[in-house]
Specification:
61% strand; 4-stranded antiparallel β-sheet; 7-stranded mixed β-sheet; mainly beta
């Protein structure tokens, strides 16, 4: 079993910054790509950014320059630094990971999601 736990969300004023964290734990053989997604009220979940185990990154075009994704492989942790926040960044932010586990000698590969952390940008 693998758990992803997000933290770092909260209420911030427009123009402010937040740093989200996602910690993966459990019977992890390897963590492949990890990513942040968000879902605003009444909207579909959308990609924010992804980072491979090798450190390659990809961002939603609209967020390039304001958000930075990173990870520390040795700690199974991923981060999202969010700067110059806007009210339209308000959403529930989810951590996602492509994880390999070994159960009774068999390798499995599954996609896991965290519970989400709320980010609210408002004055």
């Amino acid at each position: 079993q693998v758990q992803l736990v997000e933290s770092g969300g909260g209420l911030v004023q427009p123009g402010g910054s937040l740093r989200l964290s996602c910690a993966a734990s459990g019977s992890i053989f390897s963590l492949n790509a990890m990513g942040w997604y968000r879902q605003a009220s009444g909207k579909e979940r959308e990609l924010v950014a992804v980072v491979t185990s090798g450190g390659l990154t990809n961002y939603a075009d609209s967020l390039k320059g304001r958000f930075t994704i990173s990870r520390v492989n040795a700690e199974n942790t991923m981060y999202l630094q969010m700067n110059s926040l806007k009210p339209e960044d308000t959403a529930l932010y989810y951590c996602n990971a492509d994880v390999k586990t070994i159960v009774r000698g068999t390798l499995f590969r599954n996609d896991y999601w965290g519970q989400g952390t709320q980010v609210t940008v408002s004055s």
